[in-house]
Design goal:
mainly alpha, 69% helix, 3% strand, 4 strands, single chain, two-stranded antiparallel ribbon
Amino acid sequence: MDETKMIQRNGQTDGKGQKSAKKEKSLFWTYVLWLFGGLVGAHHVYLERDAQAFVYFSTFGGYVGIGWLRDIYRIPSYVADANNDPRFLDDFKHTVRTNRKPPFSTARFAAETAVAYLWAELYRSAIPEDEVFGINFRHLLILTPFVIALGVWTVGNIGREQGSIWVALGSAYLLYPTLPYIGDDTMWIFLMVVVSSLSFDTFSKQWRLKPRKRNSLVRRAIYLGLAVALYLSLIGCYLYFNAVITDSEGEEIKLSEAIQHFLTSPIWLDLKASLEATWNQAMHQGFWATWAQLVDLTDPRGEINAYKVLDLSQTATQTEITSRWRALSRDNHPDKIKGTEEERRRAQEKFMEIQQAYEILSKAKNRRQRRNRKSE
């Protein structure tokens, strides 16, 4: 069977050669999913481009949103591909006749190298540096070229192009022994990624002429779920075993140990006690009554802070407030300060803070008086 006939059958039959009743994908809903879930590949899941969806998930929108933005004008062709639009298939047949193999694409090559490099760095970072239960897991670093080849192969098999993983895998492992000569891990990984991508594009890449075997929604969900779980587990391993933070003295502390110490720190214990007290209060007094008290505690009108500025209790009378305001205004008036410019500036700020506090409390008094008159 020649290439044209194979392409004509593409999308009209399933993997067993039987007629496929495939519901057409909506351009509108694709853009909606792109807008609200595109950074994690939701629109690609809808279009059954699961590999591309996972790439977007693992790189947050095609390397921090670059692929997501590019999809603004690429989505119509994705939808046409998913629906086996006759015009799209005619253009594809013309491209296949013109090019015996897929031409070099800068965007796809950049995506292959970027994804492979990110996955390799994450994999290496996730392997525990210290022994765990007496087991040294650093020997797993030998799988780094496999992770690189997997990233190249995943991106290289998106859409109407395909290729074998073996060329990318073999070229990556050929460079694996060069680490002692290169010395720098980052440069070593980058070199393996570039060579693996170039080898895949040069010797393995070809057109996808036969239709993909369609999987059920359940099977697709299982595959995607396993891939996401594996990716998140690598992130979790890195955060638990190897991630560090730097304290004020410049010392590095493992993130897992810092979190354990935080959970026994006074600030967390006080916060935990406050949250428990708030929850118990909500159970007894009701959610809305508790919410109203929480709103009041946030000092939305600034009255609590105003009493603090004037150094008064919240039970102070208006006479006490006025007397205190006059005394503080007199003692902190900028004209009385004969010091440096910085001291006069601080005095001016303090004076303005005192005036603002008195104004807030005066307005609160007038507001309460008006409310009392209305209730009489």
